[in-house]
Amino acid sequence: MHRPMLQLALDTFDLPSALGPMQRAATHIDVVEAGTILCYAEGMHAVRALRALYPDKVLLADVRIAEAGSIIAKLAFDAGADWVTVVSGATPATMEVVLGEARKRERDVQLELIDGWTWAQAADWRALGIEQVIAHRSRDGEALGDLSWKPGDFDEMRRLADLGFKVTVAGGVEVDDLPRFAGVPIHVFTVGRAIRAAADPAVAAKAFQEAIARVYGAGEPVAAG
Amino acid sequence: MHRPMLQLALDTFDLPSALGPMQRAATHIDVVEAGTILCYAEGMHAVRALRALYPDKVLLADVRIAEAGSIIAKLAFDAGADWVTVVSGATPATMEVVLGEARKRERDVQLELIDGWTWAQAADWRALGIEQVIAHRSRDGEALGDLSWKPGDFDEMRRLADLGFKVTVAGGVEVDDLPRFAGVPIHVFTVGRAIRAAADPAVAAKAFQEAIARVYGAGEPVAAG
To answer: Tens digit of pLDDT for each residue in A144-153?
Structure first.
């Protein structure tokens, strides 16, 4: 099993607040995420700045495309994003145009699984050519204040991987949660506040990388594509 | 029947390209729309600039919220938006937090109807407190290159109005289409390119207002709320 990558989610209300922690943690980060909030707050200027600062890292623009896919994807790719996100509520037609834009430039698309999706849809998305999905912790538990990962969450990730998807785990993972992912094929672990708001973002990011290596081995991370 | 308002959709790739036509057409515009593309390109700076320039007009931020509703709504309202949009694929929980943010500030929410919604959902949205919807021309026709309005489009708008929704007609309306809306209760007509790209945006916007007045009477436009 490949070693998953570590993604830092920069969900801040302005660019400077994102740049500080990112710059300190940079050595330990594989994927830089311009979060939805940052994209809305600063526009594609934020993506351009992160591209300029980190030319060799994977850059994700979490634009959560629901419609007007072709134009938003173009905006994000032109700004330097390697990956853009679409939401599971988008129509297959929208997903297709986003995939088309991505393929033209050898970039990729992540599909964010939002409550209400079905396994039949997941199979259709795979057939459409979607290769990456973003899985969340059960929202029902979250709504009740229970932030622990459930066996059902891991079953879902395994089943998504079995369908052929590369699975990103969305925010909320703590270092101590990592051992529970043993045997679950994960492409990217996304961490936000736990690194961004840490007293030392570099130390926090390094701790995540070490925890990932303990669970998955210290080999090369999975390919960026 | 109230006279519908005229909305100019500013869907440009940068702010200056939006400001030129908007400034020229301003006298004839009731609602200023910071389009999805503009919001992603320039961030909430675009909304702030439009608020500063047109303090007395209704300002819509077409942020198409699919998730993370509370934070995106806050960003847009803080920047000066009167209305924000959510997509019909968002969960009722997301819609509720966006409505909650709007009510706190006496602002409002528009729900964008994206292919795949059902009338049962529409009734639920109304019960949830959603008061405004954005209706499109049939996408099937559009995909086949047929841009005419169909009797079914008008039936859908009437039925939405019967449910108690204030209906915005999304882009693509031409001056010559207006007579076909006679008897259809519309809250806002959205026009983009037909005004923005006109040789004289003021003349084009005035022609729309006159066509609206011919169909709906020259009374006061509907309340902004």
So the answer is: 667 778 888 9
Whether A13 and chain B come into contact, CB under 8 Å, resolves to: yes
Mean pLDDT, all residues of chain A = 92
CB A94 within 8 A of CB B119: no
Residue A63: its chain B contacts at CB < 8 A? 40
| Three-state helix/strand/coil letters over chain B | CCECEEEEEECCCCHHHHHHHHHHHHHHCCEEEECHHHHHHHCHHHHHHHHHHCCCCEEEEEEEECCCHHHHHHHHHHCCCCEEEEECCCCHHHHHHHHHHHHHCCCEEEEECCCCCCHHHHHHHHHHCCCEEEECCCHHHHHCCCCCCCHHHHHHHHHHHHCCCEEEECCCCCHHHHHHHCCCCCCEEEECHHHHCCCCHHHHHHHHHHHHHHHHCCCCECCCC
Nearest to A202 by CA among A29, A62, A15, A17: A29
Asked if A91 and A121 count as a contact pair (C-beta separation under 8 A), the reply is no
B5-216: CATH topology: TIM Barrel (3.20.20)
CB pairs under 8 A between A and B: 89
Structural domain boundaries in chain B: 5-216
Mean pLDDT of A146-166: 91
pTM, full prediction: 0.88
Question: What is the per-residue pLDDT across A107-142, written as a single tens digit (0 to 9) for each?
Answer: 999 999 987 899 999 999 999 999 999 998 766 556
